[in-house]
Amino acid sequence: MSHMQDINPIYHNSFGVAFQWKRNCIKDIKKIQLVFRNTGMLLSKEELMQFSRNIQHTREHSPLCQDCTQKESCRVLLLDSTAPQVSFAMNAKELDAIQDLVEGTLFQLDLDDYLKRVCKD
Questions:
Q1: Taking the C-alpha atoms of 111, 23, 51 and 63 in order, what is their torsion angle to the nearest 10 degrees?
Q2: Are 21 and 33 in contact (CB under 8 A)?
Q3: pLDDT truncated to tens, each residue of the chain (121 aa)?
Q4: In 78-114, which positions are buried (b, 16+ CB within 10 angstroms) versus exposed (e)?
Q5: How far apart are CA 37 and CA 40, in angstroms?
Q6: For residues 101 and 36, is the Cβ–Cβ distance under 8 A?
Q7: Sign of CA dihedral 64, 70, 75, 81
Q8: What is the pTM of this model?
Q9: Which of 106, 99, 97 is nearest to 45 (CA)?
Q10: Of the candidates 58, 24, 54, which has an alpha carbon nearest to the alpha carbon of residue 41?
């Protein structure tokens, strides 16, 4: 049996994927599963929005990486997760990719909500 039948894909890029579980065995079926590198995060939309703010904060406070030639090998950037005790070490390219993944996921969720409201009327 394919695991793809168990999920509703939301967004993906070369760095990761975001989806929601179809099965009822997951405690909160409304949460979004974000998977990147060797990490999986099960987040509410509010937590995903907080993670997006954390990404923006890391980008704005890491000017040392703008002109760096080691962007792909150095993981000097620490991105705070939604859990205060967990951070992700990333390079500038990975930070761009996780930002695209999170922003694309939020955009798709907002679009889906909008379409549900419009089609309901």
A1: -90
A2: yes
A3: 455 678 899 999 999 999 998 865 556 678 999 999 999 999 999 999 999 999 999 988 876 656 666 656 677 889 999 998 999 999 888 999 999 999 999 999 999 888 888 887 6
A4: ebbbeeeeeebebbbebbbbbbbbbeebbeebeeeee
A5: 8
A6: yes
A7: positive
A8: 0.84
A9: 106
A10: 54
